[in-house]
Write a structure and sequence with these properties.
The protein is α+β, with helices and mostly antiparallel strands and 433 residues long. It folds into 2 domains: 168 residues, Gcn5-related N-acetyltransferase (GNAT) (Aminopeptidase); 200 residues, Aminopeptidase. Helices cover 24% and strands 24% of the residues. The strands form 2 sheets. Strands 1, 3, 4, 5, 6, 7, 8, 9, 10, 11, 14, 15, 16 and 17 form a 14-stranded mixed sheet that branches. One of its GO terms (molecular function) is glycylpeptide N-tetradecanoyltransferase activity.
Length: 433
């Protein structure tokens, strides 16, 4: 259950170019998908490990006779392997206590130096310690699912993988799952085949809690995505993004025209737009549950989940809502999380401050206006770029709000759960960190 997500992707085109003028521009994607699937089914050696796992296989794509739901039934708990899988002899398992400042720092440093980079090796995710604590300690998390590998001799942390519990609804079925994330192996140990052992070990520990399904994302194609999403990027600090090579100056564009193109108002325009507070949790939960019910795959959030995942936390997650000035009803909600990237090899800048669109619900305020207000507050808080996937209803505001498509794709996967046909990104109501 890997997750090599792309930390960035330079926008491919200027949003002021009229991409609609070329009707073929968007339409070859289905052909690309078919070709990619064919190539992947031909290069089966690549997926030796995944072919042994209960996941949808490429050879089953398009077979509508297969039932939806679990691929393998649960094993009796007494038959789940009780001792950890064997690591190469120089390494040992460790459970990472994210409450410990020292351990948290070790995990932070391992990820900061070895986690996901873009294809050109210009940017690398730089999850903060606060973010990691937030991401890894949701309600009723299991410490045993925060798994590290140490070198026996030096005790240095050299690899990491995590799971957190979640309830995810697939159509009408609410399924207890693990969300698997942060699979990271030190750059010098990439040839040691540690990843498959780590995936098997986290799977074993998840099974010990009587949970048999999982969700995960990756930037690479594995057997078989439930959907493939595209990252879109909205420049907030265009000069810096161009200076560090994240985006390029468009043809016939000057820097001053570009800065003007992306300029935003100084403050949100929607009356009653304010930061979410603890007292708003019940109202936000109702809004969110109602909204997420329309998607094929979405989290089943209760108030504890909403408090944990969406209550604002400095430099981790920001949430805003619209409270009607007349009725005091909470009608709309938007949120984004903070995930900086290290800028590799630039003399002037070391960090790219990125906001990632999280969960947004519009009932009274048009989504376009709500998201424009989200861009405005992100700009006020000095973010350089605002990223969004084309999931849920995001497609409806991306072009209009001057997001450009990046070159990063994100594939979503379910472990031991079959969905009969690949979903459109707009049918997915789940954002994994």
């Amino acid at each position: 259950m890997g997750d090599n997500k792309s930390p960035s992707g330079s926008p491919k085109e200027n949003p002021d170019n009229d991409s609609d003028a070329n009707p073929l521009a968007r339409d070859d994607s289905s052909l690309e998908t078919i070709v990619r699937k064919f190539q992947d089914s031909m290069s089966l050696k690549k997926h030796k490990f995944w072919e042994t796992q209960p996941v949808g296989q490429f050879k089953e794509v398009g077979d509508s006779s297969l039932p939806e739901g679990p691929i393998e039934p649960p094993t009796p708990l007494s038959e789940v392997k009780q001792e950890p899988y064997n690591l190469p002899s120089a390494y040992e398992w460790t459970t990472c206590d994210m409450d410990s400042e020292e351990t948290c720092l070790e995990v932070y440093n391992l990820l900061k130096n070895n986690y996901v980079e873009d294809d050109e090796n210009m940017f690398r995710f730089n999850y903060s310690k606060e973010f990691l604590r937030w991401a890894l300690r949701p309600p009723s998390y299991f410490r045993s699912w925060h798994i590290g590998v140490r070198a026996k001799s030096s005790k240095k942390l050299v690899a990491f993988i995590t799971g957190v519990p979640a309830r995810i609804r697939v159509r009408d079925e609410v399924v207890r799952m693990a969300e698997i994330n942060f699979l990271c192996v030190h750059k010098k140990l990439r040839s040691k085949r540690l990843a498959p052992v780590m995936i098997k070990e986290v799977t074993r520990r998840v099974h010990l809690e009587n949970i048999w399904q999982a969700a995960y994302t990756a930037g690479v194609v594995l057997p078989t995505p439930i959907t493939t999403c595209q990252y879109w990027h909205r420049s907030l600090n265009p000069k810096k993004l161009i200076d560090v090579g994240f985006s390029r100056l468009g043809a016939r564009m000057t820097m001053s025209r570009t800065i003007k193109l992306y300029k935003l108002p100084d403050s949100p325009v929607t009356p009653g737009f304010r930061k979410m507070e603890l007292r708003d949790v019940p109202a936000v939960t109702r809004l969110l549950r109602n909204y997420l019910s329309q998607f094929v795959v979405a989290p089943d959030f209760d108030e504890d989940d909403v408090e944990h995942w969406l209550l604002p936390s400095e430099n981790v997650v920001d949430s805003y809502l619209v409270e009607s000035p007349e009725t005091h009803e909470i009608t709309d909600f938007c949120s984004f999380y903070t995930l900086p990237s290290s800028i590799l090899g630039n003399q002037t800048y070391s960090t790219l401050k990125a906001a990632y669109s999280y969960y947004n619900v519009s009932t009274k305020t048009p989504l376009l206006q709500l998201m424009n207000d989200a861009l405005i507050v992100a700009k006020q808080k000095d973010y350089d770029v605002f990223n969004a996937l084309d999931v849920m209803q995001n497609e409806s505001f991306l072009k209009e709000l001057k997001f450009g498509p990046g070159d990063g794709q994100l594939h979503y996967y379910l472990y031991n759960y079959r969905i009969r046909r690949e979903l459109k990104p707009s049918e997915l109501g789940l954002v994994l960190l």
